[in-house]
Amino acid sequence: MKEVAKTTWLDIAVERICDSLGSAERKRLKLRSLLKLASIERRTEEAMFQLSEALFHAGVTVNPGLMKVGETWTVSADDWLVIEKAGESRVTSASSTKPSDFLPVNWSKDPWFDEVQSKNLRTEREVETKFILPLLTRLGYTEDDRYDEMPVHASHGSKQTVLRVDVALFDTSNLECSNQVLLTVEAKREERLTKTVELENAFKQARCYAMWTGCRHCLVTDGKTVILYRIGMSTLEKESELIRFEREHLKTEFPRLYSLCSKKALSNRFGKISIELEQQSSKAS
After folding, report:
1. Phi-psi region of 97 (alpha: psi -120 to 50; beta: other; left: phi over 0)
2. Which end of the chain, N or C, is less surrounded by CB atoms within 10 Å?
């Protein structure tokens, strides 16, 4: 006789959260309301682990993510979240942004694009300091936007662990998405990305970060090859490689890279969603 699966509190929580969306593709909801729907009286890491994973597998995304950013709960009970049904056909992305909309004036005259070509990047640390950090500055991220070696509290089944993101990027000047991880960056030693196993490991790391932080974009580089991924935020979405190029083509490819993962492009995406939902809510009331 086939055993009938038991309904758990997580099944009920996910069902209630999905029901709250109704026919809408996405909606704004305060964290306090989300916890009430899930019947969570006290926010704990274990409860957030379980709920985040259950929503991920149910095809529901939550931004900002429910887990801690670093060592603190940066999202308070009265902060707004965006709850969204995931799906391949309707995922919004910064890739629709035109480079000309955001590119800094006279960026092509910056001597760094030529100087970096002759840099000798012997270690992973040198890839970070000589290539990644200057590149992030030119993508619009400030020192305050950057969280180096950010700990990510994660769970593998019943086992809890702490992962560390080489660099996590925010837009600290934008209240609409100041707690949202916009971009994660993984640094590899030069020539490492020529190996398939290194690429696979980098991608697995990025996907894991996405589940726990709600971050959709990950930049991976060994200083020679640059790859930007858009990570699927649920089991219903496929991952995609948005752009890949070698360092000698950096200046040519920079406008496209900027349109895909600059601070302006990514914060614009989250800001637009929040503003649209706020306007819809105001009209409905």
Report:
1. beta
2. N
Predicted local distance difference test score (pLDDT) of residue 93: 44
Integer Cα distance of 98 and 260 in angstroms: 9
Distance CA 132, CA 279 (A): 38
How many domains, the chain?
2
Last residue of a domain, one of 87, 115, 144: 87
Joined together, the tokens standing for residue 205 give 């790391």
Is 285 a residue whose pLDDT tops 80?
A: no
Nearest Cα residue to 215 out of 165, 175, 172: 165
Is residue 265 within 8 A of residue 58, CB to CB? The reply is no
Reduced to 3 states (helix: H, G, I; strand: E, B; else coil), residue 76 is coil
Measured CA to CA, the distance from residue 199 to residue 86 in angstroms comes to: 25
Q: What is the pLDDT of residues 203-226, one digit of tens each?
A: 777 778 887 888 889 999 999 999
Q: How many angstroms separate the Cα of 142 from the Cα of each of 118, 137, 170, 244? A: 25, 6, 9, 24
State the Cα–Cα distance between residues 280 and 74, nearest whole angstrom: 26
